[in-house]
Amino acid sequence: IIDKLLASEGYISNSFNYWADILRVQSNMRGGGQQYANWIKKSLRENKAYDEMAYEMLTGEGYSWENGATGFYLRDDGMPLDNMALAVKTFMGTSLVCAQCHDHPFDLWTQREFYEMAAFTYGVQTRIRPENVQKAQKLIKDPTVRRELNNITRPLQYGVKESKRALKLPHDYQYDDAKPNETINALAIFNGNIRTKKSESTRDAYARWITARDNPRFTTVIVNRLWAKTFGAPLIDPIDSMTSDSEAVMP
Predict the structure, then answer these.
(1) How far apart are CA 203 and CA 207, in angstroms?
(2) Element spanning 168, H or E
């Protein structure tokens, strides 16, 4: 009976509802929310390992109809800082949101550390309209024709690609460890530097670090999530705001 239930569409539907909530899936989101949803369902049907799912989302590239995992970035189109904060919350169980504007009032994280983490994925672009489409729009003088072309090619506007866009601190940065508008290099919280391998982007290194077997935080968070789903209460509460002094109810 267990095997039959796990192989059923009912199980996929039930599990999808859980993951769609955590991963904030929207059917009408720019770039293809339905493709993102379908990718999650397909991963569940295949019983894909959780670390593989996370890695594919964090490194996803291209259009959603080619790679549904790109929905993870397209969900936060134009908001790369928010995307990083939500990724850390989802996979590492830590809330960094407060540190976007100032040093975290209730934890160790500083505003500079927030931007150092965000630098890993800040180069991700979610607007990738092909150059030939852009050229065509410039050449067309008739506003009606230009508008129709824009409508037809709209699906080509949203996707995920890497760029060398650098991240700078805010113009009103006020701490002594850096200057306003200073360019920030990627640096990991928790256990220090992420070493980027040859032919590997900073985003690839970031995804590899988060899902690594020697990163206990990633494992702790998913175990805590599934424990709470199964038994109704987490071992470490709250689930998404673990701090340096968080303790489990049962060590």
Answers:
(1) 6
(2) strand 167-168
